[in-house]
Every structure is written in C-alpha cells, then in structure tokens.
Amino acid sequence: MNLLLHLYSVLTGLLSLSEQNAKLAKNEVRIEELQTLNQAQASELKSLKTWTNVTENQVVVVKLLIPVGQVAFSASLLASGSGTLGPINAHTPLVFKHVVSNIGKAYSPHTGIFTAPVRGAYHFEFYIVAHGGSHASAAVLVKNGEHIFIAAERQTNGYGTAANGATLLLEAGDVVFLRLWQNNVIYDNENHHSSFSGHLLFPM
C-alpha cells in the first residue's frame, strides 16, 4: 500500500513538472512574440519620426515658396493734362491719381494714402517738379501724422526738381502719404514728373 502511494506521488510530481515545463515553454514563446512585436513597433515609430521630419521640412519649404505680403505701388500726381497745385496756406495732402502699379491695393488713388497691410520694412520715394515762378515747390513724407523727410526746390525760371526717400518700419494699419508744404506749389503734366512710390522690402 505504501509503495502504491509512493508511486502515485511520484507520478503526480512528474505530471506537475511536465505541466510547469509546458507553461514555461508557452511563456518563452510569448516572450519571444512580445519581443518581436516590440521590435516591429520600434521600427514603425522610427519610420513615423522620419516621415514627420520630412513632412515638417516640406512645410518649411512650402512656407518659403509662398510669397508673403507682395506690396508695391507707383503713381504720378495728375491723371491727365498738365497743371500746378497750390499755393495753399496750409499743409495739404497730395493725391497721386495716375496709378502705374498698385500690387496689393495698399495705395488709394482717391485719398493719396498708403496703408500698410502687414508689419514690415517699407521703402518710399517721391519726386516733385517746380515750374518757374514766385513760389517754391516742397512736399513732405508723412507717417501717421509725423513729418519724416521733405523735398524742396525753388526755381524762378524753367523747371527744377527735388526728390527724397525713406525706409520705414510700419505696423499693420499705419498710413503714409505726402503733404504739399503750405504756400508751396507742385507741378505735373503728361510726362508725369511728380510721383510717389513705395514697396514692402520684407515683412517682420
């Protein structure tokens, strides 16, 4: 009887050991599967990071290729014919009506005012003509009511010209225009001597 019990105990132990070995083998297989899966996920993550970097670089290139704030204009004083404006006993805004170019539509030929569409550095130039007479010719570049630079000429006979320009840092919505200096005159004709131009150098 004792022998049978001993044999039963031995068989039971062998079966238990066999089951444990089977479970261990399954666990080892599962570990290998998890390791393989982990490697696959790591490879996929690396590919995703590479794709993301490429996409970000493409976005940067696209942004560089897209023009930002294309703004430029050029206009002369009279739309047609010839004539002299002034003298007037007060500083008077000048309206340059003959528009040659107005890229971005930032200049108004109805008011003579340029309105900055974006923050940036802008360059402006202006030319005026004096036709011989008793009055001088002078115009001043104005930014938001502030006098920046003036151009002036006095010519008793024939024609005289004056010019000036400035590069200005403008905020979006800032305005720039020209004023005829008080008691001065400005002349223009079909040759478009007196003109006002400006363009965006670069946004900031």
What features would you describe in this structure?
Residues 66-204 form the C1q domain. Its main location: secreted. The protein is built from 1 helix and 12 strands; from the N terminus they run αββββββββββββ. The protein is an alpha+beta fold. It has a 5-stranded antiparallel β-sheet with strand order 4-1-12-6-9, with no helix packed on it. A hairpin with a 2-residue loop joins β7 (137-143) and β8 (146-153). The longest helix has 64 residues, at 2-65. The model is unreliable at 58-66 (pLDDT under 50).
Key words describing this protein structure:
single chain, 204 residues, alpha+beta, five-stranded antiparallel β-sheet, 1 helix, 31% helix
Question: What is this structure, in a nutshell?
Answer:
This protein has 1 helix and 12 strands; from the N terminus they run αββββββββββββ. By secondary structure, it is of the alpha+beta class. The longest helix is centred in the N-terminal third of the chain and has 64 residues.
Question: Could you outline the blueprint of secondary structure elements for this entry?
Answer:
Elements: H1 2-65, E1 72-76, E2 83-85, E3 92-93, E4 98-103, E5 114-115, E6 120-131, E7 137-143, E8 146-153, E9 159-170, E10 175-180, E11 186-188, E12 195-203
Antiparallel strand pairs: 1-4, 1-12, 2-11, 3-10, 5-10, 6-9, 6-12, 7-8, 7-10
